[in-house]
Amino acid sequence: MILLVLGIKGCLDARKDRALSDYARDVTQIVEETDQTSKALFDKLDDPGSLSVTEFVAEVNADRSAMDNYASRVDGLDAPGDMGNAQDTLELVYVLRSSAMNEIADQISTALGDVGSEKATAIIAKQMQTLAASDVLYAAVVRPEINAVLADNGIGGSDVPKSVFVPDGTVWLDEEEVSAALGSVSGATGAATSGVHGLGLLGTSVNETELSAESTTSVVSEGAPEVEVQVQNQGESAENGIDVSVTVSGGTTLSGTIDSIEAGETGSVSIPLTPAPKGETTLEVNVDTVPGERVSTNNEASYSVTFE
Q1: What is the mean pLDDT of residues 186-195?
Q2: ω before 167 within 30° of 0 (cis)?
Q3: Which domain holds residue 161?
Q4: 114, 105, 54: which is closest to 295 by C-alpha?
């Protein structure tokens, strides 16, 4: 009976140790991936290289998505034994990181432009402080508590690593430094360039039939019709990565991108309508604004189309 009890206890202890080790391993993996995302973000801020505004914004959005993924994974961790308090604090750390990255990503495009750039930059600097606070919380509570539980259970070699999202000795908590860094992004207008920036929707056609915003246009189509949108660069500088969207009767939104339009030139993009609309349809066409664009009323139009 004694041997049986000892055997059962040994199995339970082994299972507990394995659960603790697995938990520490999962935390370590998330932390290491977080550090990679942090490095990617601050490397871009230190040296954006030849990244255009559109490319820079897209990469920050990718960092935001990565952080949302880490927060979701942390929330799904099963904290065994005495890891409950550490897990609760770890979840808070990643809520702070995720919310800060979401706010930074939301503000980055405005910060790289003219209108509202100063306010957006201030918001970004404040969110950098939130990221720094998450680092303090992880260092003061999460890491020591997880490693203490591992030590108390005699588990070696599974300690979780440090996690510093905002680099030590960073200048990114200062609003002026953030502004200067963003100003070095190619095409940024908030601090790097000046001049007029703006786009204009010149015209829209479906299968080479020109649409009118004043009346209903009949279009004969076979298969999937294509909407061709013409956009003019009405500013003084080349614009890159111009996004154009078509919303079909307030439902499905389809999109395309014009790679580049030189100042004063016109570019176009063809967007297939899939599934093909039938009967009377409303097409709402929108050309995304570019950083520094002050007037956007000519970036959109609505058309009534009858597909036959």
Answers
A1: 52
A2: no
A3: 2-183
A4: 114
